[in-house]
C-alpha cells in the first residue's frame, strides 16, 4: 500500500512537471471587443460584427429579409429563434440546415473561420430581435444561366463551399500579423478568394493594397474612395467599404493594412 502511494505521488509530480513545461496556448484571435464580459457590451460587439460581416447587405437593414436574385434572404428575426445555438453555429460555419436541405449563397466558407468569442457575440445580438416583418419569402425558379453555373460546379451549396475552402487560407505571416490575417479570412476572402489572390476580370489580388499609403488605405476603407479620387471598376467595393469596413476599429484597420502590406512585400 505504501509502495503504491509513493508511486502514485511520483506520477502526480511528473504529471504536474509536464503540465508546467507545456507552452501556453496561443490566445484566440478575435475582433476588438470580443472579450466583453458584460452582456450589453457583448451584444454591442455582435451588432458591430453584423455590419462588418455584411449581414444587413443580404438580409436587409432590419434583418427582416429581402429578395436576393432568385433567392430570398431569410427574415432573421423570425428564423433565428427556431434554431438552437448549436444549430445556428452549424448553419453559419458549416452551411448546414437542421433539415439537411441545401443552403445557397450563405458565406459559410468564410464564416467557418469566425472565432468562438466573435460567433457567440454575433449570436447574442441576433437573439435580441423580436419576430417582426413578413415571413421569409420563397425562392424563385432558377434562370438558365444560374442552372448552368450550378451544373458546372461554379456555384455550389454553402456546405460544399465550406469543404472546398477549408484548407485554402491567406498566407500566414506569424503572430505579429494574426489579427490582420484573421480579418481578411472572414471579410476580404468573400470577394477576393480564400488566398486573397482575386478572380480574373473581377477582383484583384490584394497585393495591390501594398501600393497604398496608410492614409490612402484609411480613405479607401472608410469612404470607399481610391487614391486620387479614382472610381472602382466594380462599384461593389466602394459600397462594401462604406457599409462594412467603416465599422472596423482604427486598431483593426491598422492590423489589416500591416498584414496586407507585409503580404505584398513577401510576394515581390
Architecture overview:
There is one protein chain. This protein has helices spanning 2-21, 39-52, 55-59, 76-79, 85-94, 108-111, 116-126, 144-152, 158-165, 178-192, 214-223, 235-243, 250-267; strands at 66-68, 71-73. With 268 residues, it is mainly α. The chain has 2 domains: 39-163, Cytochrome Bc1 Complex, Chain D, domain 2 (Orthogonal Bundle); 169-263, Cytochrome Bc1 Complex, Chain D, domain 2. Strands 1-2 form a two-stranded antiparallel ribbon. A hairpin with a 2-residue loop joins β1 (66-68) and β2 (71-73). It starts with a helix and ends with a helix. 30% of the residues are buried.
CATH class of the largest domain: Mainly Alpha
Whole-angstrom Rg: 22 Å
Question: What is the distance, rounded to the nearest whole angstrom, between the alpha carbons of the first and last residues?
Answer: 68 Å
By DSSP, the count of extended strands is 2
Seen as an oligomer or otherwise, the chain set is single chain
Task: Please summarize the sheet with the most strands.
Answer: 2 strands, antiparallel
Q: How many structural domains are formed by the residues? A: 2
Coarse morphology: globular
Regions with little confidence, pLDDT below 50 for 5+ residues: 1-24
Amino acid at each position: 500500500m505504501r509502495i503504491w502511494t509513493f508511486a502514485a505521488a511520483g506520477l502526480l509530480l511528473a504529471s504536474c512537471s509536464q503540465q508546467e513545461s507545456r507552452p501556453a496556448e496561443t490566445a484566440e484571435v478575435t475582433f476588438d471587443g470580443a472579450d466583453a464580459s458584460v452582456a450589453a457590451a457583448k451584444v454591442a460587439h455582435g451588432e458591430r460584427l453584423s455590419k462588418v460581416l455584411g449581414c444587413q447587405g443580404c438580409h436587409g437593414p432590419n434583418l427582416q429579409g429581402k429578395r436576393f436574385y432568385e433567392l430570398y434572404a431569410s427574415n432573421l428575426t423570425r428564423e433565428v429563434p427556431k434554431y438552437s445555438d448549436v444549430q445556428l453555429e452549424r448553419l453559419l460555419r458549416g452551411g448546414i440546415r437542421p433539415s439537411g436541405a441545401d443552403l445557397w449563397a450563405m458565406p459559410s466558407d468564410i464564416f467557418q473561420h469566425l472565432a468562438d468569442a466573435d460567433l457567440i457575440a454575433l449570436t447574442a445580438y441576433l437573439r435580441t430581435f423580436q419576430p417582426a416583418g413578413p415571413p421569409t419569402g420563397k425562392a424563385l425558379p432558377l434562370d438558365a444561366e444560374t442552372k448552368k453555373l450550378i451544373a458546372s460546379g461554379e456555384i455550389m451549396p454553402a456546405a460544399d463551399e465550406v469543404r472546398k475552402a477549408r484548407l485554402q487560407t491567406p498566407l500566414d505571416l506569424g503572430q505579429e500579423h494574426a489579427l490582420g490575417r484573421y480579418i481578411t479570412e472572414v471579410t476580404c476572402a468573400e470577394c477576393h478568394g480564400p488566398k486573397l489572390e482575386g478572380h480574373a476580370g473581377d477582383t484583384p489580388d490584394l497585393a495591390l493594397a501594398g501600393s497604398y499609403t496608410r492614409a490612402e488605405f484609411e480613405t479607401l476603407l472608410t469612404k470607399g474612395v481610391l487614391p486620387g479620387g479614382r472610381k472602382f471598376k466594380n462599384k461593389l467595393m466602394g459600397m462594401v467599404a462604406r457599409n462594412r469596413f467603416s465599422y472596423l476599429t482604427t486598431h483593426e484597420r491598422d492590423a489589416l493594412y500591416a498584414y496586407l502590406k507585409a503580404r505584398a512585400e513577401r510576394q515581390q
